[in-house]
Amino acid sequence: xxxxxxxxxxxxxxxxxxxxxxxxxxxxxxxxxxxxxxxxxxxxxxxxxxxxxxxxxxxxxxxxxxxxxxxxxxxxxxxxxxxxxxxxxxxxxxxxxxxxxxxxxxxxxxxxxxxxxxxxxxxxxxxxxxxxxxxxxxxxxxxxxxxxxxxxxxxxxxxxxxxxxxxxxxxxxxxxxxxxxxxxxxxxxxxxxxxxxxxxxxxxxxxxxxxxxxxxxxxxxxxxxxxxxxxxxxxxxxxxxxxxxxxxxxxxxxxxxxxxxxxxxxxxxxxxxxxxxxxxxxxxxxxxxxxxxxxxxxxxxxxxxxxxxxxxxxxxxxx
Amino acid sequence: xxxxxxxxxxxxxxxxxxxxxxxxxxxxxxxxxxxxxxxxxxxxxxxxxxxxxxxxxxxxxxxxxxxxxxxxxxxxxxxxxxxxxxxxxxxxxxxxxxxxxxxxxxxxxxxxxxxxxxxxxxxxxxxxxxxxxxxxxxxxxxxxxxxxxxxxxxxxxxxxxxxxxxxxxxxxxxxxxxxxxxxxxxxxxxxxxxxxxxxxxxxxxxxxxxxxxxxxxxxxxxxxxxxxxxxxxxxxxxxxxxxxxxxxxxxxxxxxxxxxxxxxxxxxxxxxxxxxxxxxxxxxxxxxxxxxxxxxxxxxxxxxxxxxxxxxxxxxxxx
Lengths: 319, 319
Hints:
12 strands; Nucleotidyltransferase, domain 5
C-alpha cells in the first residue's frame, strides 16, 4: 500500500497543512491565519488538530508516515528548538518539535522552512533531475536551503544554508543579522522597497512617485510594475539586485559546485528584470560557471515547495 | 593484516611520494624535484617508478591498497583529466589518472591537492575529532577543500572547494581567474607581496625598504619578519589579510555551518598577526559563529597533509 504524510508550513502569516502521497499527489491543503490565534500554544493546538484530521481522513489512501513541519527562523536541529524567529514573535527558544510531538504522538520532523522548500524543489520541482541543489528564496528576507545527494545539509548546529547572510556588498547597509552588505540587504523585497524609497527621496523616478501617489503602498510589486512599464530608475534597482545575486551565486558555485541553483520567493517573479545582470556577474566571477553546465533556474512549486518538502521529510524519516 | 597505501603530492616544484599505513604511520617519504624532469611523461614515469618501488619495499607491512595522487589545478573528477593547472605548464587537458593507471596497474585515485590535504587534516590532523571541515590553504594562491561527513565533497564536475575565488573585496584587484576581489587576491602570499610593493612605492615603510635593500627578495616571509619586528605598515597588511579571511569564513560558516575551518599553507605561519582581525570580522559577520561552538584553527600536518590525504583516498577506495 502507498504511504502518505502530512506536510506543515508554519509561516508568520499562515499555517498551512497538506496531506501528500509518496508519489507526490496532494490530497488536500488547509490554510489557517496565524494572527487569529492568540498564543503559540493555540497555534500548536490548531496545527495538531488539522494534522490528525487529515491523517484520519486519508487513512484509506495508505500508511501514514508522520508529519514534517517547516518553521521560519533558526532552529537547533538536534533538539528541535527554535533559536530565533523574527516572524514568530514569542517563539524564541521554544521546543517546537517536542510540543508538536506531544500533541500528535506520531513521527514529527521539524526543519527550517527554506530547507523544506529546497527538498520540495528537489523532490518534485525544478531539481527533480539532480541529486544536489541550493535554493535561494527571495522574499521579505533571503532564505536558503542546501540539498546534497538528496538530503538536506543541515550543518552541525542545524543552521546551514543561511545564504541570505553571505556578504556581497563591500560597503553595504546594515543588516538585521548584525553584519552589513548581506545578500538579504541587496536582493530581498525589503531591499527593493528600501532602494525605491531612496529613489522617491532623491526625486529620480517620476513614474514611481506618480504610482505611489495613487495611494498604493510602496511594495516590491509596485516597483516591479513601474520598472516593467519602462522606468529606467526602477529597472536599475532590479539590475542591482541581479548583480548582487550573481556575486552570491558565484560564491556558492565556486564553493559547492552544485549542478543547480534555484531562485524562488516573491522577488523571483521579476526574473526577466534581474536575471540578465545576474548571469553577467556570475559568468564574470566564476570560471566554474563558465564551464557551461551549471544551471540557475526559477523555482517551480511556488509557496507549496515547503509543504511538499516537509511531507517528504516525514516520508524519508519513516522509510 | 594491516593495509597500506602510497600517497603522492604532485606539486609544481616537488613530486613527493610516501608509503603510509592505514593507522597513519608514515614508513618512508621520497621527494623529487620536478624541474629536473624535462617533460610530463618523464614526471609520470618517475612517479610510477617511485610508487612501485615503495609498494614492493613495504609489501611485508600489509596489503597494498593502491595509490592516491593529489594534483594542483582544476580537475574533471569523473575522467581524471586536468582542466587547468597554472603550476604544471603543459598539463592542461591531460588525462593524468589514465597515464598513472597505465604505468602502475593498480587502483589509482586522483584528486585536487587541496582536497587531499583537507582529507589528510580530517584523518590525522586538526580535524581528527570532527566529521566535516573546510581547509583553506594560504600559499602562492588560496586553495581549499571540503570534507563533508568524512568524504571529500567534489561537486558535480569535481571543482568544489575553490574558496580562493569567492569574492570578498568589493572593489578588489583583478584576479587570475578573471574575477576581481577574490579571497586569493587578498589573503595569499602573492597578495602580501603585492601590498608590500605598494608600501615600498609609496615610501610608507622605512623598515621594509631597509630590509629589502639588504638584497633580500621581497617575499611574504620578509614582510612577516618586518611586521614582527614592529613595523605598523607591514602589520596592517596582515590585518587586512585577516579581515578578508574573516569575510570569506563568514560566507562559509553561514552557508555550510561546519564545526571546523582549518587554515593551512605558508601564510598560516603569520597566524598571530592576522588572526585577531579574522576573528573580529568573522564574529561581526556571522551570527552562527556568535553561537560559540564553531572552530577556526591552524592546520597541523603542514606540507604532509596532502600526502596523508592522498594515501587515505586510496585506502577509502579500496575499503
